[in-house]
Amino acid sequence: MQKIIPSIWCSGNADEMAEFYVAALPATRIAQSQNYPTEGLPEFQRDMAGKTITIDLEVGGYRLNLLNGGDEFAPNPSISFMLDFDGGRRGEGDAGDDARAELDRTWAMLAEDGQVMIPLGEYPYSPWYGWVQDRFGVSWQLMLAGPGGAPRPPVVPNLMFCGPNQNRASDALTTYAEVYGGTRGTTAEYAEPTGPANAGAVMFGDVELAGQWFAAMDSGTEQDFTFSEGISLIVQCENQDEIDRFWNVLSQDPSAEQCGWCRDAFGVSWQVVPKNIGTLLKEPGAFPAMLQMKKIVIADLHG
Q1: Which residue segments constitute the domains of the chain, with CATH numbers given?
Q2: How far apart are CA 167 and CA 237, in angstroms?
């Protein structure tokens, strides 16, 4: 089971986004979807009755969640998704050419009506790389692995620490490793001050959390955005004890506590939920009960 699932907030267009990503991203399919209940919704959600509430995508087996809501939140580049195209590890020739062609195809679809943040090209860290924000505001970093590179997951979420969280990437990586019993991996530091990044801040770092890799960086340029509910991280918990344990560590802003959502000390939003939340919410009265909760209490969802 994938313990941590990134969740992308959709402004009523989750079905359109899912269709686009299935076409644009390599080896992508819809794994499952859930609908809003047809009754018992609060007034602000009644126009969503019976419509899609979540869609889970699998990108090369890696799960991403699309959450259908209103226009309260929107994704931004503070959390992006690194897509690895691994032809370089299979050697030169046809395999590498096929991977680059697949990367180019994906780039063209994501860039259409989107915004290029770093142009597609050759860089010291990758023979073919680019960073693009798609038409829905979701950011993707496409990377072709070089020959002999270590195996990489198909998707790695990348957290960019900027604005009020500038220069906190190293502390966050250490904290998350402690919370999940994970291991810090590579860390490359800024050798000298670069924009708002201090010397010694994280240019690139990664950490393994519950068997999954996450990357982090301190921004080297001033940004006008930071972490938000536009992209959150779902923690699938086995039981109430695990919900309680993660909630007590991750929830550091009481104003952000609602329906299992919380915000940590670094501004990142999390959804701390039971792994069978979809099944639980199908029970009579469970959805309205959840709307009244801050931390999820499993027993109170059973009616």
Answers
A1: 4-74+228-301 (3.30.720.100), 79-218 (3.30.720.110)
A2: 30
